[in-house]
Each structure stands twice: as structure tokens, then as C-alpha cells.
Records
---
Amino acid sequence: MSTTEWQRLLADPGPDGHIVQLYQDPNFYGEAISHFAAEGLVRGESIILVATHPNWLNISQHLQSKGFDIPELFDRGQLTLLDAEETLPKFMNAGMPDGKIFKPLARDTIRRARQDGRYPAVRWWGEMVNVLYVDGKPQASNRLEEFFDEVAHEETIAIFCSFLMDKYDPAIYDEAFGNVCRTHSHLIPTRDYASHREAINRAITDVLGPIQGPLLRSLTSWSGEISGMPSSQAMLLWVKETMPRRFGEVLERAKRYEQSPDTVGSA
Amino acid sequence: MKSHLTDCGIPGVGVVPYGIHMCHFYPARAELVDGLIPYFAAGLERDERCLWIASPPVSAIEIAAEIPRYPEMERAFRSGQLKILDGTEWHGDLATVVADESLKRWIAEEEAAIADGYQGLRVANNMHFRPGVDWTYLLAYETSLHERLRGRRVVVCCSYDRGLCGPVDMLDVVRRHDAALDRHDDHWQVFVQKTHRGRSQNGKEKQHQSELRAE
């Protein structure tokens, strides 16, 4: 399999890159996290994973299938595993994360992961933010993400997050998706960028018709921030902002086309 | 002092600044050729060297065969003021093009035009591509071109076959150009790209943008 755009991004996220993956497929989830970790390990970096127990099983299986000896990684201090559900209560206060507790805790974890300079570069993947989001605590999730972003810049570490989100659910675009984009430098919305692009192209053409005249004017003059995400995802934001009443239909068709590429469209 | 503005030549578009990098999504061969004839006629009238980079659906030989219908262009073609080349001759195969090398050729062509006494360089670049094969390379090429044209005495119009471009492809293209040209019946319009070469606009680029808005 050739290296995809998201694999390249996770392999080399930059010194303080903050990447987010939207997922529904557990295999894509495990594949992406293990790729992020594996690429750090082979570069001699230290890896911090903050996972729930079931998800750690998924990730560890992927790491083992890549040939990593997990007990050995623990022994030499190159892999740090924290339980997300045990760690979260340590810094939650009245339903919100407390930065005064969280930040020293995160910095101390990073300091230990560096092993007195043996591993200067550190990567962190965690799902505490997603646990809060899935538990219906979007404000707490967003606040914690902001704390993570601050720590990532202060400590110059790369962070990767995974959100259980349906990119074709119109509801996420009301607030959650905007928050995710605001707190991350890069977004991975799907495993297969080419299929996503094709599905969005077909759906928009079905619903809006050819991009010419007023539509081309709108697209050209649209100043939405699209860096850090595939153009196909950015295109959805253009539809959402400029033609909100057609947005649901575009999403519905795009979802159908991505799931069943052979579906015949209609204008 | 040389003016930093020139006549685009395309009806309804009017004056454009040098350094502009425009795109055009054409529905068929006829519009591609019909739109570019007045574009080049204005460049010749403004004493610019003109470079027509052809790609399917119309080759350099086919364009050259049509040129005798336009006496001014015929004279310019014979004198060397108008050059017509195939894209493969100019930038090679998109999948193997080295953007920096190709861009050196663009800059050299502009400098040669000015050294020869012309006001600048006017280019039409028909970007033919193989969907799913060349796109990444093509975007890298356009990105480099977009960055390197700023401040040069060059006017460039890149043409894309609308039938090959989906909406997402069109977003990719317009974000790498200053403006998009669109034709409805016989009327042309120019749509300005608001993010205009990213966030780091200098004063000259802002001036370009306001000039286009004034059209």
C-alpha cells in the first residue's frame, strides 16, 4: 500500500504539531494511532499514550503487528501508558478540567518520558478529550484541548487526538467541528482521501450543479481558513457557510457515495 | 517609469496589474481559443512578449494554424513577439516536472522580454492533466508559480477544462490564483480571490487587490 497523506502527516507531525483524526471505524483508529507511535519509536522518540483499556488493546495489537515488543518499550522507558479513565478525575474540578492541576501533571509526564535527555523528542496521543466529548461534556472537552495545545507549545511536543465523530453528521458542524479545527493544526477526516474527494465532488455537483457564475464567484471570494485539512473537507465548509440550506443534502449524498461509490447520482 | 497596470483584453475584465495570476475554467475548446485571442491581442498592443502554452484539447500546431486569421497576431508570430509552444515542451510531463527548474524558465523568459525592450511577458497556460495522476504535482507547480510571480512583469492566465475539474479541484485551483475568469453567454466576469497569496500581503499586493476590485 502506498503511503497516504495522513500517514505522511502522522509520521512527521513537526515538533509541536497538533493533529486530530475523526473516526468511526475502530480499525482506522488503531491504524492511525499505531502509525503515529511507530513512526516516533523508529525515530528514537518517546511515546506517551493515554488510553482506555479497550482502546489500548486495539492499539497494542496494531503495534505488535508492526513488530514492536511492548514490554521491552516499557522497560526502556520509550513508551508510557496512562489509563485515560484513571487519569481524568485527577484534574477535573466541578465538571471542568483544572489547568492548575492538569498542566503540572502533563509536564511531569513529559519530563519523565524524556528519560533525562535520552529521548529529547516526545509524542503524545491521548483520548481524554474524546472521553469528555463522548460523555456529552463538550465544553470540558474543548477546555482540555486548549490546555493540551498550550502544553504542546510550551514543551515542544507533537500531539495527536482522535475524536469519535461522524464527519457526515450535520449536527457536528454547529459547534464541535469548529472547536476541533480551532484547537488543532491539522485534521484527518477520513482514511481514504481520494474516495472522500470523489464523494464530495459528486454530491456537490448533484445538489448545486456546475460551479460557474455566482457559485464560482462565491467559491473564489470565500475566505474560509482551509489550511491543515484536505480540500474536500474544506469544500464542505464552503457549502455550510454559503448555502446552509443545501448542506444537509450534500452531506447525505456524500456519505452515500463514500459508502457505496457505485451509487448512481441524480441531479 | 513603466506602468504596473496593463489591459487584460478579455471583454469586461479591463485593467489588471502585472504579476497577476488568473485562472479560467473553460467548457469547450472554442471558448478556450476565443477567450485567449483578445487576451493576446491586448498584450501585443501593449508591446508585451506573448507566450501561448498549449495542451490538449488544442495543440500548438493547431493554434498556429488559426493565427493567420488574425493579422496582428500573424505578424507577431513571425517576428517572435508571440511564441506558441506545447506544454510538454515548456514544462514537460507534470508528473515529473521540477517546479523550481520550470520556474527559472518563466523568470528567464520575463527577463529576456524586458531586455528585448518589451513591457513585460503575457502567458496563457493551458493546464492539461490526467485526473487522479497529475493533480498533486500540478498543485505544487501552481503553488510555486503563484509565489514566484509576485512583483514580476508577467500576466498569466491558466486554463482548466471544466469537464475535468470537480468542485473540490476548483477550490484547489482558485486558492492558487489571484482571480478567476468566468464567461456567461458573451459576458466575462472576473472574481477576485480574497485570501490572495496567503496572509502575508505586502503593500503592493494589497494595491493589486484593490485595483481588481475597482473593475
---
Amino acid sequence: MSAEPIVILDHVTAGYGQRAVLRDLCLQLPRGSFTALLGGNGSGKTTLLKTMAGLLPPLAGTVTYRPVDGQPPVIGYVPQREALDPLFLLSGFEVALMGTYGRVRPGRRVPAHECEFVWQCLRLTGADGFATQPFTQLSGGQKQRVLIARALASRPRLMLLDEPIAGIDQPAVETIMDTLSTLHREWGLTVVLVTHNLAAVRPYVDRVLVLRRGALYEGTRQDLAAPEKLARLFDFSLE
Amino acid sequence: MQTLIEIFSPDFLLRNSVYASLLAGLACPLVGIWLVLRRLVFLGVALPQIASAGVAFALSVHVWMGHLDVSHGEEQRALAFIGSVGFTVLAILWLAWLERRGRGLGEGRLGTAYVLATAISILLLAKCPVAERGWLNLLKGEIIAISNPDLVLTGIAMATVLVMLWRFHKEFLLVSFDRELAVTLGRNVGGWDLLLFGLIGSTVAVAVLSVGPLIAFGFLLIPPLIARHFARSMRQLALGASLLGGITALAGFVLAYCWDLPVGPTDVALLGVIYALTAAAKGLIAGRTVPN
């Protein structure tokens, strides 16, 4: 893994409107790392993820993206499943296809080779078998796999996932984490995922960030090897 | 059948009204789908009222400037068009700006816009009875006096809107379904929103003038809501809503013609009946498919 950072947060204050949720954070996210972002409810995990994704402009400080192969890194963002409105009558494939829209000029149809690439992404995440079904009728784990395929379809260098394993049964959690781990290894993706569940992600991630009371704690490999210390410090469940 | 043949005969006196009604029935639901999907039904209520207030304003200003006769068809309709489009576009820009600031309650803003537009119309027309006559002629929803130029203008405006909606469907879908993804893909979300709302506003402004606010609102919202009961994809939703709007517009016109009723309320009442029947049918189907 290279230690070169892909995103640098320099004294960032982040929040909504004029209300700061996180203050004066500094962070360098190493390229090729696989990071779990942990914290209790309301600790600011999603705020930090959205700030890294460029969805929330920082109230103070700067967020810098280091170029990858001479280009600013494409960000694959996977939102919380509940954020997507069930009124839209879209199949899993149509949802995943949106990942290509950044490369297709406005007013143009998505070309056939891009559609084929989306099917490849769906196969990679194991979502090809149910991608023609209505997105709203898929289970939580199936939706998550479609959304990960959609993020992959944008050909990202940095993947940011908001609570990808929340509310999903154990076999589906393992499938999703296996998929992310494979993508991290084989595609060289930098991955950051928000979760409450350290136990589920510990075998996969190589880095942990913990938010508590507005402060950011960067965990080490030793912390991951002995998660009881983290759990004790930050009130996590290891069940 | 005899009535249908009569209505579509080239000599039929109200021929343009049939075509205008059909245009509104086919086109308004395709625009209204976006109001329903973006949960902006209140906007569909408020915009026709704002367009009506614009018409009242334009006619009143015209009278206050010394032109005491607003009964000249062409001049009156040109003024009404300017008022309708002007007020609608300004309202869309104002609402979009407030939405972008992200403060306050969206539904509250739309509700306020609706009652303010109604109050402004009543106040303006109370002080200007001459303008009130012209306003009533234009907006009471009987759509019996549509000239050839009006019909052509309505057709061109609706066709332009539909071509734009079809061409940029992908972009409108992206910013409506997942704004965050659109931002990370580098799309100008505010710009696409503005274009979509501009197209919705233009349709409302033109439809209000051609067929009145009642039919405009009815066709914007009820056909998409009915079609959603049975559609399985966005394409089915669009085709179903548009076809339903077109058929209802024609059937409503025939009923109104046969029974000597105003067309606008007849169309909307017919849509209401279809909505109730389809909701009941869907309930029955759902009840039968529940496993024991």
C-alpha cells in the first residue's frame, strides 16, 4: 500500500448551514487504504463522509484531492439505502446505470459498451441475478450490492460508503464485505465505510477512524488486533 | 360515435378547443410526473394559481394605463401570456432560490405562494372590474374560444417542453432520484433543477391560458397518480399517464358537449372517478394476492 494521501483535510470545520458538527479536523487518507469510520449516533460520521465526498462544502479549512494518474480522483459514493425515494419505478440495472452518467454527455443515450460495463459491475457485486427486478422490491442486502455496482460503474479511485451493512443479515454482510475487500485488493480502490459494527468489518479493514465528541481518533493496526481497547474507549459493541 | 365524428369534423365550431384539450391531456401528465416523483404536488397547485395572478396583474395594469377595453382577443391574450409566463417564471426562480438556501419548510412556502397568488388576483380584480371580465373570459375553463394562433402557440410550446424532457430525461432523473450522486459525478444540480422547473413553469403558464387553471392542475397531477397504480417502469408511467390524460380529455369533451356542461370541471370530475375506480381495483387485486 502506498502512503501517498488521496484526500487531505486541513483544519476542516464541517456542518450544515452555519451549524458546525465537526471542528478543526485534520486527516490524511492514504491511497489504497481500507478504512472503517466508527462512532456513535450523531457523532458526525456521515457529515465527515459527505465532506470528504465534496457533498458538504467545509465551513472552514480545506479539502484537497491528490490527482491519480494526473486526474482528480473520481469518487464512488454509496448513500444510505433509505435515502432513495421508492416512488421512482427503476430496476436495479437502471439504478446502477446512473453510475455512468458522469461520462455520458447531457442529452445523449448511454452507449452499449457502457451498459455492458454496468453488467460487469453488477456481476462483480453478485447483483446481476436480480438487477432486472424493481429496485424498491429488493432486500436491503440486494439494494446495497446494486448501489456498490453503481458506484463501481463510475470507475472510481475512492469509494465512500455510508452505513453499507446496517440492518442487513449476517450472510449478506459477509457477501458485501467480501466484495469490497476484493475490489480494494484487485482494483486498488481506496475505501472508507461508515459503520457501527466494528466486529463485522475488523477482518477486512486495515485502518480505523473513530469520531467521538467532535474529535477524530486514528486507530492503528494494533488497535484492530486488540479491538477490546477501542470498544472500551468508545463504547462499541463487539458482538 | 356520431358525436365523435361531429367533433372531429373540420366544420365543427369548437374544433380548436378539442385539440387544445387533447394537447393539455397528453402533455400535462408528462410534466406532472416530475411533480409527483419529486413530491412537489403543492407546486402543481400553486403554479396555476400564480399564473392566474399574473394574468390578472397584466390585464389590470393595462386598464390602469388607460386602455379601458380588454375585450380585443389578440391584445388581451398577448397581455395574458406575458403576465402568466412572467409571474410563473419569477415564482419558479424565487422558490428555487429559497429551496437552495435550504431554510424553512418547503410545503409552507408553496402554501403561502398559493394563498398569496389567490389574494393578489382577488384584490387586483376587485379594484378593476373591466380587467375582471377579461380574466374570467380567459380562465373560467370553458376553453370555447381558442383561435388558430393560440392553438399553434400552445402546440409549439408543449412540443418544445416534451422534446426537452425526453432529451434530458437522464439528467432530470439523476438529479431527482439521487442528488448526492449527481454532485459526485460533477453535474450542475442547481442548473438542471432550474431547467426542469422552467419547463414545468412554461407548461403551466401555457396550459392555464389555453384550458384554464382547473384543467391544468387536474391533468398535471391526477393521470400520473392513476398510472402509478399499475406502472412497473418509468416508461410505462409516462406512456400510461399521457394516454390516460388524452383519452380523458376527449371523453370529457364529448360528455360536456352532449350534456351541455363546462369542459374543465367535467374533465376533472371524470379523472376523479377514474382515480377512485382504479384505487379500488388495485385494492381488490392486492387483497387477492395476499398469501394465506
